Amino acid sequence: MLKQFAIRFAPAFLIAFISTTAWTQVTTPRVPSPASTVSQTIGISKVTVNYSRPSVKGREVWGKLVPYGWNVQGFGAGNSAPWRAGANENTVVSFSHDVTVEGHKVPAGDYGLFFVINNDGNSGEVILSKDNKSWGSFFYDAKNDEMREKIQLRSISQTEMLTYDFTNLTKNSGELVLNWEKKQFPVKIEFAVDDIVMANAEAELKGAIGFNWIGYASAANYALQNKVSYGEALIWADKAIAMNNSFNTLSLKANLLKATGKTAESDKIMHDALAIATENELNTYGYTLMGNNEQDKAIEVFLLNTQKNPKSANVWDSLGEAYATKGDKKNAIINFKKSLSLNPPPAVKANSEKFLAQLGSN
Fold it and tell me: Of 216, 209, 251, nearest to 235 (Cα)?
């Protein structure tokens, strides 16, 4: 009797056992489509893709393994759906800041990423869904779409494992690409980098960074170098000067004023900055002017440096370079010889001797 009871109820017990252990077993490697994550920073914004990586394994992928167009799911909602753009759960793309995807404004956040490949094998669609927690495409619902846009596919060399990557990166943009078999699905991603950096700087300067002049100076310098938000940058420069009245902070404000067309005010502040500059700061500024083909201004700065630091062989060598670059051979030779008379360090000595040889002077 006991034996018959055991046989009769064994299947139900076994089913219950399997159902329970499926949710309580330890974590083991996922086979055959391992999970992967790829990230890319554009500006200061981060794009991350979490996905699973199926392999071709000799199978016919397009039109077979991945049906053309929209296909009806045999499980879940029984819906017409796009391809899950990977395997297993939703492929999820995350944006740390508001972004433009294929021309569509998309808020920061996490999105289910889907693709469609058309019958021609060369065109398709990219879809971002606000539902990013489903399993594959089985519960896809178009009402949750954040954006949908047509794309053109590209032909590539054989790629065995499905791979996401980022290409064609610029300051403000890049392409997120899915590569599999011999197809590439490109999606253009763009960030308003300067706006994001400026907004982020304003927020950071309200925290610990705002208690140091370097934070304000770095924010103002970004604005200067990228030609944005000059008004706000001048406010930051003034705060940096209030904390540290130095050549670095004063010259930063002077350059911002020059960029806004306030030349006279810029020259006055730069004069004040040069008056308190160290030897190295003057030398560096002089070479910056030379790099901008402002040879006469560079010579003025190097002359000032020789007046403030007459015993430095390096400043005389730098002045010689400025004259040589301008084409004033006579004054170049005079200053290189002056440098050599001051027992210069090896690197400075070598530079002066090199120029003298080029100028035909021993």
Answer: 216
